[in-house]
Amino acid sequence: MKYEQSNPEYFETTVKPVMEKYSYLDEIIKEREKVQSGTVNPDEPYVIGGWLILPAIYIFGRILSSFYEIIEYQSIESSIESLSNKFSGQSIKSLRNKFSDIIAFGTIKNIIVIALLTIIEFYFFMKKKQTPRLMVGFLILSVFLNFIEGSIISSAIRINDSEFTIIIIWSVIVAVFYGIYFSVSKRVKNTFIN
């Protein structure tokens, strides 16, 4: 550099530390130039971006909704007395018996979902090779868990099955969509597998 030669002391004490502190910006600029010029090596791993943002949002949102469902299941336990009026004056004891399986399964299911998704999220952002298989496996497990939960709830309180059918159909659609995406996508292969 010309400036470095004309004033070496100022360069060493002021300019060089700033350049070292923000050296990562050079990498970002070079990466952006590669993408814009179309000279990205297809064998290089990608950063998490593009359509991969959607599974990241899904994972985070599903973790939050599982925490919410745990709280919701626990609130059922505390409001059983008020529910006895809605269910034809059944005794509190019989309602507790009906809802105990629902509350237990729902709580355990959501704890399992939170644990698995936390592991998958770690693998996802560390760009581990196992991420696509873990994600597809989780989605398949999610369909089965939703089916079991719907069966337990509908058999315990004998309500309309259409709500659970919609939940199961939605989880099948999500599983098929992300299953195909994680199996076929070049971005997924370049980010996690290569």
Structure annotation, total helices: 9
What is the average of the pLDDT values? Answer: 78
Label the structural class.
mainly alpha
Q: Give the DSSP E fraction (strand runs of 2 or more residues).
A: under 5%
* Strand tally: 0
Main sheet summary: none
> Into how many domains do the coordinates divide?
2
Characterization of the model:
- The protein is built from 9 helices and no strands.
- The chain has 194 residues and is mainly alpha-helical.
- The chain folds into 2 domains: 2-37, no CATH class; 50-193, no CATH class.
- Helix 6 (92-125) packs antiparallel against helix 7 and helix 7 packs antiparallel against helix 8 (162-184).
- The longest helix is centred in the middle third of the chain and has 34 residues, at 92-125.
- The radius of gyration is 26 Å and the shape is elongated.
- The model has no long low-confidence stretch (mean pLDDT 78).
Précis, in short:
The chain has 194 residues and is mostly helical.
Task: Give short descriptive properties of this protein.
mainly alpha; 194 residues; 9 helices
Note the topology.
Elements: H1 2-6, H2 8-21, H3 24-37, H4 53-78, H5 80-86, H6 92-125, H7 131-157, H8 162-184, H9 186-193
